[in-house]
Every structure is written in C-alpha cells, then in structure tokens.
Amino acid sequence: MGLLGCHVTGGIDNAPQNGHALGCEAIQVFTRGPSQWKCKPLTEERITNFRSGIKAFNIQAVMTHSIYLINLASADRTIRRKSEAAFLEEMDRCEALGIPYLVFHPGSYRNSTERRGIRRLTNSLQRLLNTRPNQRVQILIENTAGAGFLLGDSFEQIGMILDLIGFPKRVHVCFDTSHAYAAGYNLQTKEDYHEVMTEFDSTIGLKHLKGFHLNDSKTELASRKDRHENLGHGFIGEAVFEEIVNDSRFKIHPMVLETPGGEDWFRKNLQLLFRLRTQSSTK
Ligand SMILES: [Zn+2]
Ligand SMILES: [Zn+2]
Fold first, then answer.
1. Residue 178 C-alpha to ligand 2 middle, in angstroms?
2. What angle (nearest 5°) sits at the alpha carbon of residue 138, between those of residues 98 and 26?
3. What is the pLDDT of residues 21-76, one digit of tens each?
4. Which structural domain, as residue segments, surrounds residue 82?
C-alpha cells in the first residue's frame, strides 16, 4: 500500500497545501524552474514555510524531480559542468527542505557511446556524492523510455550504473510505469506486473525501488516514446495499477501521478487509485 499523490506544480511555497487540496498523501515537486539553469537561492522563510506546510497538511512522502536540462552523461564538457553544478544545487535544496528523494533522468550519450556515457554519469555522481558526504537525500535514477541515446531504458543497465557508482545507501531507483512500458516491459495484466517486478529484483534489487511514477502510456509497448496518459486511457491495464498500490512490499513508498490535463485529471486519477486501494483491502 503505497502513499498516493501527484506532481504538484506552482512553486514549492504552496505545494503542500495544493497537494492536500488534491487529496495527496505524497507529492513530487520541482524546487526550481525545470527548464532554466539558473535559480535563486532558497530563503529561510521559504524553507520554513515548506517544512511546516508538509506537517500541517499531513503530506507523508515527498520527492523532488530535478530540472530537465541536467545531463551528467553528456559528451559535451560544458553541458556536463553545468549539469553537475545544477545537480549539486538540487541536492542542497532537497537537504535544506528536508526532502528525502531526488529523482533524475540518467541522461543521453549522443555523439559518443553508451559505455562512455555510463562512465561519465557514474563518475559525475561519485564526485557529487563525495562532495556532500553527510547529506541524507537519496538520489533516485528514473527509468526512461529509451528513445535515441537515452540511458536508463533497461533494468540491466540501471543495475550496472548502481554498481559502478557504489553508494548503495544513497542511490536508488524511481520506477515510471509509462517509461517502462514504452521501453518494452509489458504491463497489461497482474501477471505482467509481477513478472516485471521479478525481473527488477533480479537485475537491480527491489530494495533499491524507492518511489513510483504512476502514468498510463499513450503509445504502444516498446514504442520508445515518452507519452504519458491518464490512467485507464492508455495501454497499461488498470489491474497493474491495482497491484502496485496494494503491493505490501511498497508501504511507505511515494507513488505520484505525472498525467496530462491539469488538476481535474489529477483528481480523477487519484480517485481511481484510492478506489483500487480500498477495493482490494476489502476483498
Ligand atoms: Zn522524469
Ligand atoms: Zn516519470
């Protein structure tokens, strides 16, 4: 039984309240503008507001999604340097705000090879983690749909990346259902879900699965296209979401929606997830 919620936009100041208004137990936030390299430092006031909001509105789990520009696997040294600076900023902001999880995309190795991209990514993360030896924030690699030169489309590769980084208590995984489906992991029936989790366990280890993005997929299995859809309106079976929200292995795990259509759709999708959770507990 995971903690249900959605990605709340509109700035961190109002995120706990907005999440609460939508019915969230868990939220995901950007702590900064997601498509800009630059950001203003957090003020003490904003930090206090966020922390007290989380308590006051009874938000039980929080994740940050890093800005989209970050590419630690890039063959371009300038991009990599900017990415490292931005990533460190993300880590520090999570630490200041008391956010335990920082989700990010492992990046693209365009103009280079997969092996070199993985090396650049893992070297970067090692360096960043070593720079902040005492931070509590855990870094979550998000699995991707794998278009073009994107890393993170297979469990084997993510498992290898975790091994190469070598910080088993600080680096884990966020599982996005629509990305997995687009990357070729079938998620239509209850049985499919359990097969995919078994494969996750044997390649990465379920102990590394710390959070979920619950999205349906607008595109077919193995399409390698990243197109989120509202639950029940895409190719992923409702049965799969029912299994996830009721999976007793994931009791304290944030499970957030990143579905299209704004707040009304977040509400509808959340209602569906809560219904699936209750239904199952009364069976
Ligand atoms: Zn993402
Ligand atoms: Zn996602």
1. 8
2. 60
3. 999 999 999 999 999 999 999 999 999 999 999 999 999 999 999 999 999 999 99
4. 3-281
Which ligand is nearest the CA of 103, by number?
1
Q: How far is the CA of 104 from the centre of ligand 1 (A)?
A: 6
Phi, psi of 212 (to 5 degrees): -130, 145
Residue 109, both tokens: 């190795």
**pTM of this prediction?**
0.97
- For residue 282, give Cα distances in angstroms to 31, 182, 203, 226, 275: 38, 33, 34, 35, 11
Domain CATH code at residue 8: 3.20.20.150
Backbone angles phi, psi at 104, to 5 degrees: -150, 160
Taking the centre of ligand 2 as the mean of its atom positions, its distance from the CA of residue 213, in whole angstroms, is: 5
Q: How far is the CA of 91 from the centre of ligand 1 (A)?
A: 16
Residues with a beta carbon under 5 angstroms from ion ligand 2: 176, 213, 258
Q: In angstroms, rounded to a whole number, what is the distance separating the alpha carbons of residues 36 and 252?
A: 32
CA of 144 to the centre of ligand 2 (A): 8
| Number of domains the chain contains | 1
Listed in sequence order, the residues at least 6 apart from 78 whose beta carbon sits closer than 8 Å to its beta carbon are none
